[in-house]
Write a structure and sequence with these properties.
The chain has 282 residues and is an alpha+beta fold. The protein has one domain. It has eight helices and ten strands. The protein has helices at 19-28, 42-60, 65-77, 98-104, 117-126, 138-160, 167-185, 251-262, and strands at residues 12-17, 30-35, 87-92, 111-116, 129-133, 199-204, 214-218, 223-230, 240-245, 271-274. The protein is elongated, with a radius of gyration of 21 Å.
Length: 282
């Protein structure tokens, strides 16, 4: 996966959250990585799967009949991809962006948390997560999907020659690794209209539902599963370099609250700054 995406990350990445979200992060030293099928906009993940369907159709035209049967099975398997538990935690390159305040914080105010990328990526890797930059270029997204499916077709031909791919063979030998690869890349495919946010994502390996770090939260219309992802370890409790207090009527009061939180925190909180975004814009 890393070969497809930019890995030269900025010194810090920002996570936008509510007051209760900030309190939870600093008191537990954890963030919530959501199962990809429960992200805020379901169309986002479907956009990526549609690209893979188009890529499969494109690649199949140039393959042998046996490889075509494998690609056909792969295309059908995308309808069952909900069984793969890959979790995602989102960050942005920008810590004071109007669209992010609107999208991820309540109207009355929120916070953005700067996390030191070098420390964060090391802690994430120990838990089976990779930090990856999202891409908003649909032609690049399609090129990635096509290359992955070309590799799949080549590997199938090398292993099975001219033997057709039966449903049983695909499920037993091919489905798991392929769907994991797709789920590892698909969350990085974002619609071009969201390019301003410059998002990075921590993306997990497949995780069993039996993992004790799984939990749930209640939204207005759904029970959402998430993975409790640690952002500290024995060597580092200083992943947070700064907290920006979002636009609100009581911005200075909200800033003082962060100082109270620091007394209960598992993490050092770094400096506190005020957003320059006018409150009236929200």
């Amino acid at each position: 996966m890393s070969s497809y995406f930019e890995l030269c990350s900025p010194p810090a990445l920002w996570h936008y959250t509510s007051p209760s979200g900030l309190a939870g992060v600093v008191s537990t030293g954890e963030v919530w990585a959501t199962v990809i099928h429960y992200l805020n906009d379901e169309r986002e993940f479907q956009h990526a799967l549609d690209l893979f369907r188009k890529a499969i159709d494109s690649v199949a035209k140039e393959q042998s009949p046996s490889a075509q049967t494998a690609l056909s099975a792969a295309k059908d398997s995308l309808n069952q991809i909900s069984g793969v538990n890959v979790c995602v935690f989102s960050l942005s390159e920008y810590g004071d962006l109007l669209s992010q305040w609107r999208a991820y914080c309540p109207p009355d105010g929120g916070y953005s948390i700067a996390m030191r990328t070098a420390i964060l990526s090391g802690i994430l890797e120990k838990q089976g997560f990779r930090l990856v930059k999202c891409t908003y270029d649909e032609s690049f997204q399609f090129a990635i999907a096509k290359h992955m499916m070309e590799e799949f077709a080549i590997e199938y031909t090398q292993k099975y020659g001219q033997e057709d791919c039966t449903v049983e063979r695909f499920r037993a030998e091919l489905s798991g690794p392929l769907l994991y690869k797709i789920c590892s890349v698909a969350p990085c495919f974002k619609h071009p209209s969201f390019a301003e946010e410059r998002e990075w994502r921590a993306i997990s390996q497949p995780i069993s539902w039996e993992d004790s770090a799984f939990s749930t939260r209640i939204t207005s219309n759904c029970i959402v599963p998430h993975y409790r992802l640690k952002i500290h370890d024995e060597q580092h409790n200083d992943v947070i370099s700064q907290i920006i207090v979002g636009p609100s009527k009581n911005q200075k009061l909200a800033s003082r609250s962060v100082n109270f939180l620091s007394n209960q925190a598992k993490l050092r909180l770094g400096s506190v700054a005020l957003s320059h975004t006018p409150y009236r814009n929200l």
